[in-house]
Structure formats: C-alpha cells, structure tokens
Design brief:
267 residues, alpha+beta, eight-stranded mixed beta sheet, 5 helices, globular, disordered C terminus
C-alpha cells in the first residue's frame, strides 16, 4: 500500500470518527445540571397562561375523583393510541388545553441554548425529554414556584416521574410546602403535598444519599388521605428508599431577580 493510500484511509477514518462523535453529542444533548437559585421570598403569582394550566389540571383532578384510567386515555391519545406511562402526557395535555406557548423536543433543541419566551414549555411523552428540553433552555432550578413542573428521582433514576406544582407556601424555617397535581399515579390523577428543602441531592454520580422531601406533620394535614389526595412520601419499589426532587422546570420566568448560588452556599 502506498503512502498516499494510507493517508487517504487515515483521513477517511478520522472523518468517520468525527461524524460518529458529532452524532453522539447531538443525541446526548446538553449536560447542564440544575442551577441552584434563590428567588425573592415574596411568591408572585404566575402569568395568566400558567395559571390557566394549573386550573386545567385542577379541574381534571376534581373530575376524576381518583377514578382509575386505562394506560391509553385522553392524556396519551394526543400522541397515539398506544399504552404508556402518562405522567408527562398529562402535564403536556394540560399545557396544550391552557394554550401555553410550547414546542416539541426536536423544535426546542433547534433553538439556541437559553433562548425561549418568558412563558414557554415543551410537550413530551417522558420526564427525561421534558428535563432535556428545559436544560437546553437553561430553565431548571431547585426553587419551587406555582406552575413549574417538578421532576422526581428514584435511586439512580433522576427522571422517574413528573408533576405540576399547583401551590407553594414558604415556611419560616426556609423550607417550602408544595402541592402538586400529578398524572399516572395509581392509574389516576392525584394531588400530593409535602415539605421540600431546596437542596440539590443529585451531585453524587450514583444513587443520592440525601433527601429533600419530608412529610407534612399530621396535625397540619387539612384533608384526609383518599384515592385522589395524598400526604404520603413516595418510595422506591426496588429498595424502599424515598423519592426526591431532582429539580423544577421553569415554565415561566419570575419578574423578580434570580441569584445563582455557589454550591457551598446552598442551604
């Protein structure tokens, strides 16, 4: 083999390696992690479109009253007639019904990173795709607000579930009491309330050892446990460990200033 042919073969190999690497980068998406932020403690109300989304979710919760649904239902049929876990289907359906500005993941990834409207969301069929879209838009946070999506983790699965924050109350000790409306929990739409400490427990490469959710004291629970209402903390089916909040997805940008904290400054 001549030196010229060797050079040509080497160049072709390098081009193939570069193409494969580029495809991998495009597929894997941004590697941004949730941004630890602190927002002014005066919890402003969300914009009308976001409030409409909360109202749509609340109306669905009231209508179902804990009734179990098939895995193929109206929260999935906007995509197809197949059966699939529909927690992200539910949040996406509520966003569409409320008229939220939105795009599918492929459209979001074609935007420049960090570019999106003040009120905006992604419609997707899985929590992982939702997280990827909001990371691309640089809109992940550890601070809850009404109308944000919430991503839960279970063990080393950082995107096991997604819900919608319907109410937030800041407690005196720096924690937040958050109420969420979530699809595909016990095959229905359920409401959950828990106390949340804004700590990023996802820094470890494997299963997080920390927790950021605690149960509301029984004497402060103003409703009874039911098929549609829960005060329980979710636990892993595999090892009984607590679920945790991975981050919140910012469907709207609060008007007040946001300050990014260094990791060592986190509460």
């Amino acid at each position: 083999m001549t030196d010229f042919r060797r050079i040509i073969l080497l160049l072709c190999s390098l081009l193939l390696l570069f193409a494969a690497f580029s495809a991998f980068c495009e597929q894997s998406g941004p590697t941004a992690t949730p941004v630890p932020v602190i927002i002014d403690e005066n919890l402003s109300e969300p914009p009308d479109a976001v409030q409409n989304m909360i109202s749509v979710a609340h109306a669905e919760w009231e209508k179902l009253k804990g009734k179990a649904l098939a895995r193929s239902n109206k929260y999935t049929k906007w995509v197809n007639n197949s059966e699939w876990g529909w927690c992200a289907g539910f949040t996406s359906w509520c966003a569409m019904k409320a008229g939220m500005p939105r795009a599918v993941l492929s459209e979001v990834l074609r935007m420049l990173e960090g570019e999106s409207e003040p009120v905006f969301t992604c419609i997707a069929v899985s929590p992982a795709k939702q997280l990827r879209a909001f990371q691309h838009m640089h809109r992940t946070t550890m601070i809850p607000r009404k109308g944000f999506f919430v991503i839960y983790g279970d063990g080393d699965n950082r995107t096991v579930h997604i819900g919608l924050v319907s109410d937030v109350y800041r407690l005196e000790n720096g924690t937040y009491r958050i109420t969420t409306i979530e699809g595909n929990m016990k095959n229905t739409v359920r409401m959950y309330t828990a106390d949340y400490t804004p700590v990023n427990v996802c820094n470890e490469p494997q299963k997080p050892s920390g927790r950021n959710l605690t149960r509301v004291p029984e004497n402060e629970q103003n409703e009874s446990e039911s098929a549609s209402r829960s005060w329980q903390l979710r636990v892993s089916d595999r090892d009984g460990s607590d679920w945790y909040i991975t981050c919140f997805l910012m469907t709207w940008i609060p008007e007040e200033s946001i300050t990014v904290l260094d990791e060592e400054e986190l509460p």
